[in-house]
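Technical annex B. To support the medicinal chemistry partners, we prepared a structural model of the target in complex with S-adenosylmethionine, based solely on the information shown next.
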Amino acid sequence: MAEPIFAFQPIGVIHTPFARAAGTPIQARATRERGHIDIRPAYAEGLTDLEGFSHVYLLYVLDRMDKGALKVTPFLDGKEHGVFATRSPKRPNPIGLSIVQLLTIEGTRLTFEGADMLDGTPLLDIKPYVPDFDHFQPTRIGWYEHRLRKDECVLADDRFERKP
Ligand SMILES: C[S@@+](CC[C@H](N)C(=O)[O-])C[C@H]1O[C@@H](n2cnc3c(N)ncnc32)[C@H](O)[C@@H]1O
């Protein structure tokens, strides 16, 4: 039997100052860069009560990435790892996940801090960050414990960028 294929329509578009992958922050928590999201009017009602949450998950399509590799060398390490042990943007299903700080909601426009995605990134979903659900004290963090770069805000290079 054929594997099922799931199709999703974006609920909005994320706008950020970043036109290309190289130079974009690699994680939302490490940057104060701002972005905004324009939610499609058909989904406006779904924003009701979202302003009560300071942080939200954004789930989006890494739409300018070729599907990829099961082994990758992440930005913060010099060694290859299985893609599922990394947050590499190049992955079999190019889905990105960022927890950002929600600043304002004006109509269908959300502004946020913590932009680590490219301008025009299609947004699939928003979920509130709830510490009781989402905050853990991990007992191991794999290769990341010995990561190469410990500076606060690491910017991406072009290692995963689609070549023209
Ligand atoms: C390391 S990934 C992490 C993304 C997300 N925070 C996550 O963990 O899934 C962030 C990098 O993905 C790349 N990127 C962001 N938006 C993209 C898009 N729409 N298409 C392709 N690459 C993108 C940029 O190079 C950015 O620095």
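Notes passed to the chemistry partners:
The CA atoms of residues 54 and 102 lie 5 Å apart.
The domain at 12-66+93-130 is CATH 2.40.30.70 (Elongation Factor Tu (Ef-tu); domain 3).
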